[in-house]
Amino acid sequence: MSRALLGHAMLNTCVRRSRRQLLIRDIFRKSKHDWHYTDLFGSPSYCCVCAQHILRGAFCSCCGLRVCEPCLKKADRRFLCKEIMMRGTAGAPSSMPHHWIRGNVPLCSCCMVCKQQCGTQPKLCDYRCVWCQYTVHDECMVDCLRTEDCTFGEFKDLIIPPYYLSAINQMRKEKRTNYEKVVPYCSKHWMPVMVLANTRSGNNMGEIFLGEFKMLLNPVQVFDLSKIAPAKALQLCTWLPCNAVRVLVCGGDGTVGWVLDAIDEMKIKGQERYIPQVAVLPLGTGNDLSNTLGWGAGYAGEVPVEQILRNVMEADGIKLDRWKVQVTNKGYYNLRKPKVFTMNNYFSVGPDALMALNFHAHREKTPSLFSSRIINKAVYFFYGTKDCLVQECKDLNKKVELELDGERIELPNLEGIIVLNIGYWGGGCRLWEGMGDEPYPLARHDDGLLEVVGVHGSFHCAQIQVKLANPVRLGQAHTVRLILKSSKMPMQVDGEPWAQGPCTVTITHKTHALMLYHSGEQTDDDDASSLSE
């Protein structure tokens, strides 16, 4: 009898739990808050409704509201989230009041009135504005602060104010496009930023950044690229002043290339005056492009999000060459269209392309294993070591012909050829410079020139990476032509590999991309020329 009662009680508990979970999911789906459920907060948290310590509950990644599970429905009705656009306003407002949230203020924050530390008491206390991030003590909060205009704080030059979007929306309804008249409502040095995050990059760190950037900016400025394509996200640029927008791409070099392709589409649509400048938060495995642009070889959370936004504000605009890589299969000139790629980093044929091809094949079979940058590099190392023994790409010089600006190049005994557009290659190696003990022409990423080098094999690549050897410098050129005469060889463009049969590869200049260069994150003993790239 007791077993039956116990089983019945367990069944009732399971039913209640499933009903509760369905109710929570329904609230999340219908809510204007961006709720996330958690049963463990990283710091002591207190419910904004009942003021009790939260053991299990939810938080909004846009406004920072925290609530225990029983009070979720009540909190969702009572408290407004950040409004991306002001509603119900007559005329064109040029300001908005603070939006105060009580409790759970950041540690080490100071009261804007008395300048003393906030959030020191173990209870629900003190206020924080969800826009300017200013905090104020309960006892310092006066009526004038509740109605005072919000200044948007330190990042006012990056935030798109809700009243700006309201004004632009009204102008679009009236079919007016002179948006410049609305700009004076914003900061004098306004440079709105858009954040495009690949949540699948870097141990899924992009998911964390989405919430942190939504807290500091207008949520409409932050996009999850797993849910919306870059081309659609970038249409927000057409609502903003010409030549003023900055885009922060959170992801690897492949994500950056995806966004730059979408920007090229804007040029085709006649939206060239809205083209943004692009900064990078490196979350991928190689991150050679971000390293070249001064944003570092990889990000693991060591720099606060606030500092990242400061770096974006202070970064300098530069140009990056982008190249067209056309692969025409031998014997199919009139029957099959050539494959066309856009190159930002490098093209290669040989051992490094073989490592990338093996890596991608392994990742396709077991994607769950490749959730860490360290694991990814370990797999690359394994395949590189294997190729040192097998030498699958030997005698490449007998299988290919190379032309630089129409001039045939006599090739020494090689296993690989690499065509470089940027300074870094292979996850942080300055390939063109090698050991730096030989004279060589300077390499830049904005001069319309490609650097072409050869390698003797995987072991030679490893030697170059630790500065124990120099590459075989074959020359610089505006146009590169490579003819694969026989057999099948591994090739790659910016880390995207494939096995290629006899063909002709032609690399020509395509366009420039507007990038942002951060001068504070060099990871190598770079010379002065790299700073001016």
From TrEMBL:
Reactions it catalyzes: 1-octadecanoyl-2-(9Z,12Z)-octadecadienoyl-sn-glycerol + ATP = 1-octadecanoyl-2-(9Z,12Z-octadecadienoyl)-sn-glycero-3-phosphate + ADP + H(+); 1,2-di-(9Z,12Z-octadecadienoyl)-sn-glycerol + ATP = 1,2-di-(9Z,12Z-octadecadienoyl)-sn-glycero-3-phosphate + ADP + H(+); 1-eicosanoyl-2-(5Z,8Z,11Z,14Z)-eicosatetraenoyl-sn-glycerol + ATP = 1-eicosanoyl-2-(5Z,8Z,11Z,14Z)-eicosatetraenoyl-sn-glycero-3-phosphate + ADP + H(+); 1-hexadecanoyl-2-(5Z,8Z,11Z,14Z-eicosatetraenoyl)-sn-glycerol + ATP = 1-hexadecanoyl-2-(5Z,8Z,11Z,14Z-eicosatetraenoyl)-sn-glycero-3-phosphate + ADP + H(+)
Domain (Phorbol-ester/DAG-type) ranges: 32-81, 97-150
Its EC number(s): 2.7.1.107
Pathway(s) per entry: Glycerolipid metabolism; Lipid metabolism; glycerolipid metabolism
Coiled coil: none
Domain DAGKc per the UniProt entry, residue ranges: 188-329
Keywords: ATP-binding, Cytoplasm, Kinase, Lipid metabolism, Membrane, Metal-binding, Nucleotide-binding, Repeat, Transferase, Transmembrane, Transmembrane helix, Zinc, Zinc-finger
Main location: cytoplasm
GO biological processes: glycerophospholipid biosynthetic process; phospholipase C-activating G protein-coupled receptor signaling pathway
One cellular-component annotation, GO: cytoplasm
Membrane-topology annotation of the record: Single-pass membrane protein
InterPro entries, per database record: ATP-NAD_kinase_N, C1-like_sf, DGK, Diacylglycerol_kin_accessory, Diacylglycerol_kinase_cat_dom, NAD/diacylglycerol_kinase_sf, PKC_DAG/PE
GO MF, one annotated term: zinc ion binding
SMART domains: C1, DAGKa, DAGKc
Compartments reported by the entry: Cytoplasm; Membrane
Family classification: Belongs to the eukaryotic diacylglycerol kinase family.
Entry function: Membrane-bound diacylglycerol kinase that converts diacylglycerol/DAG into phosphatidic acid/phosphatidate/PA and regulates the respective levels of these two bioactive lipids. Thereby, acts as a central switch between the signaling pathways activated by these second messengers with different cellular targets and opposite effects in numerous biological processes. Also plays an important role in the biosynthesis of complex lipids.
Protein name, entry field: Diacylglycerol kinase
